[in-house]
Fold each of these.
Amino acid sequence: MICIGWNCRGLGNPRTVRELHHWVKTKCPDFVFLMETKCNRNKLELIRNKIGFSCSFVIESRGASRGIAMLWKDDKEVDLVSYTQHHISIIVNQPTTNQKFILTGFYGHLNASKRSGSWNLLRELKAQSNMAWLCIGDFNEICH
């Protein structure tokens, strides 16, 4: 399984969409998590179709900032677990191995004074399940 997490800083620029298409074509990911999409659901669904994905869950941008989206291929078995302005969590079922895991796309607070809230959200998300957990994204934090 291959995942891509990308802070694309807006999908309004055709060059950015071409770059996304290039990454998808060369890496062949099963899941793509996008941050700072800066666009609405309709625009994101057009881009999703253009790059060859059939399913998505979108948190629309607020004005000209934010916005996150999780994209996946039609052959994946996915159930939505939870979402906020800062994350999307899904359960991925792997029928060939009969295993499930949680995939979380995460985008931490931009404001340094609110980053402790980001870490608290991650702790809460992990505490909700004993399943294997993969978290991808931009934490907006330098730890070391």
Amino acid sequence: MSLESKLEAWVAAGLIDADAAARIRAHEEANDRPYVLWAIVGLGLFALALGLALIVAANWDVIADWLKLSVHMALTAAAAAAVWIGAARGNRWLKEGALFLLAALVLAGIALHSQVYQLTGPMWQALVPWLVLMTPAMLIAGSTRLVAYGWAGMLLWTLASLALENEHAAGLWYFAHGLAIAGPVILIGLSLLPWRSRLSFADGLREVGILVWLGGVSFAHFVWAGTVTSSEAGEMAVRLVVPVIIAAGAMLAGRRWRMIPQTMLLPIIAAPMAALLLATVVPHADGWPARLVGALIYMAMWGLVARAAIASGWRALFGVAIAAIGIRIFIIYFELFGSLATTGAGLIIGGVLLIALALGWRRVFALVGRKRA
């Protein structure tokens, strides 16, 4: 609905008068941004960059190695200088954009050196140096979600690559596996530090951490649909030592600096950790009792998240929690009552429950809105 249509509707409903509508219209016109123009300019710049990249790629084999490395080093130095200049001038977007470009150039440089010197090896051996080189700069200078998302994604990619390349290794590698599992908890814990002047950066870390942590634990609940032997449970217990320690540290950080509502600490850190432990370190055989227990634990975890989220005003997370519970209710009929689902009775019951859940969700939002008003 356009602004003009909204203003006409508000005036017709008596919410504002014509003078207020004129002032709103003038204010919006004064602050209007030519998004279409900038989009066209951005598309043109992208086409220009892509064309240059294709020309270089077409002649890549005839370009001398020293020239490739020299140009890359010059670009990297220029990006680092731009970060410095942006920070010195207080130009947030120059600093953040250059920092993001610097991170990309460092990663590209690692790949370029590997190609020039014909180095081979697993992916994590290239990602770990990037993490070591760029983490200090991105954590010290980063102040927007853009940089937070980029660094968080690279951290999770590095840890996942490290674990997957060595998934069958034993001994101390179990702790590396645990570090990969704890990746999103590390992000949540870092976001709970006192980032007083860089709240957007902290929010970005926390958003990625919560999304991956709750999503990962939700998928781990389907372990209840399989058999976990005593030996497998013992190995997982060793792997989860590191995540438990990191989760405890994140809880302490949250209580110490109170960067988020205290009611959210248990649902987004401790409850998923407990649910993961129950699913993976408790031996069980496949069968409907185990599947039922898994479904109940899953819904209890997300129910706790929903309750805390609505109490803390985290409406988006509340909506995700209700959707997660609704999907699980739908799935459980296929897991436990296959014959009913085949005849349609299970789907009918599940549909009724989902409709009731949606109506209840809407009623909760309405009640919260009235209380705040």
Amino acid sequence: MDFLTSPEFWLALGQIIIIDILLGGDNAVVIALACRKLPPAQRAKGIIWGTAGAIVLRVVLIAFAMTLLSLPFLKFVGALLLVWIGVKLLAPDEEGHGDVQGSDKLLAAIKTIIVADLVMSVDNVIAIAGAAQNAGEHSFLLVVLGLLISIPIIVWGSQLVIKLMERFPFIITFGGMLLGWIAGGMLVTDPAFVNPAVMDWMPKWGSVDEKGLAVISDTLYWASHIVGALLVLAVGKFIVSRRAGDGGEGGAAHG
């Protein structure tokens, strides 16, 4: 139980909870839409069982993703996807949930929640696998704890979370930069770049320890995280300002 006194463990757990809350708002909307036609007596059951099924499925997906991250260049690709997800968080597209069908049958509503969560959980899975990657043997425990803590917040406190994000936009900015931070760390610790036993013809800027975890210099560690966070912030702000400019020009053209 020594890991419970490790700052790295609690930092990673905090990152996972933040990621789940920031990227899980849509999931809460889907749950509400899927259960909206259920009789009041069954609505709570639909939410609970649908959410439970979604949690189990997501844990399996994350465990699978964490295993895949040991393959060369998958962390590299995952880092690029995380940067894209972080940018979308700062400069979101306008998307609706009108295609989510409500049902007056309990099992149908539960199925809708699980299937929709599966489709929408790609971003969560990549981000959480990245956040837990350096926790070694306790990484899976981190994932489960993070989900157990954050899912009830998402499901029962989604409206509060949404209002907080609207009132304090820096929360969204912080979340996007957090994804960029994790992406930077994922990219430089890809096995292709640090593991001498993997693609030995490639130049390496690090190594791996006896547990198979990446070992890189402190300078590269901090620089990669900071560059990743700043990249997401810069690209996100650029897209938002460009859209605002296009909107202004369009309005002037129609005036």
Amino acid sequence: MLRILGRTSSINVRKVLWTCHEIGIDYQREDWGRGFQPTSSPEFLALNPHGLIPVVVDGDTALRESNTICRYLAAKHGRHDLLPQDPAGRAKVEMWMDWQATELNASWMYAFHALSRNSPDHRDPARIAASVAGWNECMAILEPQLGDHWLLGDAFTLADIVLGLSVQRWLLTPFDKPGLPGVEAYYQRLRQRPAYLAHGNLGAA
């Protein structure tokens, strides 16, 4: 059985759990990370030398990086609706997944730690303001892409899983936000999916 190592409060673990639910994969999850088994242990570092969650173990295969794990699971189980088989369709999904993992994540990092986690290492008002501004700019980029359905049209894909959790984090982190009705409507559509309700709707941690 697939093993998933990571606590459910992690946004990156929730990506993997949500993907498993959409596909219908049975798994065994183990609590690792903040407040649980330490990711600095030799056992964990043998699977991920970076000491970060999630890690999945599928037989003899151990994988890290949440977006990579989601792509692996969709491809292995033939879910071409979530990750198209044709190169152009797959690239469009991966393009948004990569944007989420790089530009979008970089924008919110400081503000999230300051405003949601109350981190004592993230108290610089100027850096908080810059992070909030960058985060809002990224969400404004996303706004016109959403339309009346999913990010890439009628088909729900892995891009909606990774960006759906990012949208939730933006909405739940306390700061002034611009009016983005498309993002708000998209979030409400996500909340109609049983897999989101089971794994995505667990807070902003």
